Protein 1
Amino acid sequence: MSTLRLGDTAPNFDAETTEGKLNFYDYLGDSWGVLFSHPSDYTPVCTTELGTVANYKPEFDKRNTKVIALSIDDLASHKGWVKDIEETQNVKLNYPIIADEDKNVSTLYDMIHPNEDDKATVRSVFIISPDKKVKLTLTYPPSTGRNFEELLRVIDSLQLTAYKKVATPANWKHGEDVVISPSVSNEEAEKLFPKGFKEIKPYLRMTSQPED
Ligand code: BEZ
């Protein structure tokens, strides 16, 4: 599989997981999705990441987003490790972890970077929209735990773009002013944003964050 790029269709797959066998597209349904890999079970950074995502599950739910993790360790290993995650991170695991022993999914999503480590996945993230398009790819090194607040922020931004025709500026946080997408004319903007907008330049128009 060549590298997946933004706008590509996220490949479907069947997989063994800690919540039983599943089909990825069936699991996602009409939701947004986050597929993320970690290098291996029983490692410290991964333990904190998987616990953090379990704690954030209500935030992903609020955003109509299903999460699913992956490593190439087997199911027995995952099941044993989940007990440690629950004990040490004070949480109940509430999403599936794929046991990608045959490397089917990690190959489809190019999650093994052999010059970094040929026996484990790196920390990949894919955000997938309801039409199964890849909307974000992110690759972190094994030694750096990801910032899941940032993933929520990107999901908020992607959903604002998909549903409200706005984009989000540098360092934007939920509730702050947003940027009107360049494809929206001023006439259309007047209808879409009744509270008004500020034209700093013809291509730089700000408005308050649209309500849900
Ligand atoms: C970890 O997952 O904890 C880890 C993986 C590779 C290097 C350092 C830490």
Protein 2
Amino acid sequence: MRCLTCTYSLLLALAVVGSAWGAEGKPNSGIKRSTFGKMADGKPIELFTLTNSQGMRVAIANYGGVVVSIVVPDREGKPGDVVLGFDNLEGYLAKQPYFGALIGRYGNRIGNARFKLDGVEYKLPANNSPNSLHGGTQGFDKRVWTAHEIPGPHPGLQLTYLSPDGEEGYPGNLHVKVVYSLTEDNALRIEYTATTDKDTVVNLTNHSYFNLAGEGNGDILKHEVMINADRFTPIDSTLIPTGELRKVDGTPFDFRKPTPLGTRIDADNEQIKFGKGYDHNFVLNRTGPGLSLAARVTDPVSGRVLEVFTTQPGIQLYTGNFLDGSIRGKGGKVYPRRSAFCLETQHFPDSPNKPSFPSTELKPGETYRETTDYRFSVSK
Ligand code: GLA
């Protein structure tokens, strides 16, 4: 006679395995929802975990559209979380430097916290004196977004937010839609769209802090970086572009060949001094519209590789120069200076005041559309 308990145990085991793994022994792709915390007014915040059939996992909160974790394997197949952040909502609500967040209405700085559009001057919060940084004091990183799951073979999460006319000083009701999805080749794809009912300026990005060795696992100075840019936009002492597009040749900004981040990060160079390391926008070499390779970063120890593809004209390399170990992140880990790097795809900082830069203006009837892929793999 058959052992009933054994059959039952076997069925149970199959059910448990079957819920996480597909028929070919691959993990099932999908979306899982869980509670992340509550806003001060009681609004619940959720965490959406997207998994692809390769086992890559990305968790996103509808507060700030924050990418809370990105779990990808290293060379040995060992999974690790490669972005800085917190275990719960409280961490994100406290003062912190935009970990993983969606940035808007204008990513990076607008000089002297003002710009003119159609002859009208708009004043913005000078939250990075004398400039306005990352959309002002209550940017898109501090808003609750409306979330919709997108099921299917490429699990996705749609986040929408209506930024009302005059919010943080910007004109026009701006309808913003951001879709995060996971591709089968291990990319986190971010698609941004926006429409307005008045002329305005828009520059959306994501502010993930990467450490390919795993968050909380030392500094990023040995990470090797390639940036597909012949020119960068030099800055003044307040980190506002001067308007020049300067050749990278012979400067610490020449990343056309893979170079460890630490090699020239403290070079005797005025631009490096202004940024306290790297905090600069690169002018991407583009051959036409569509997604093109902007940067590739390799961690020689873990073997993890991050490639950034984008439709945007620029990318900000920021090497966590303002991190100082005062923040306790996931699992109580400390994040010291330069323990992460950011590659923020974007239009150039201060474009609204720089007519020679690609325009960031959006008019009624037009649709702002940009896409960025963060693709992960491993090197031998
Ligand atoms: C961007 C800026 C940096 C810094 C960080 C957040 O990358 O360019 O100067 O403000 O955001 O700390």
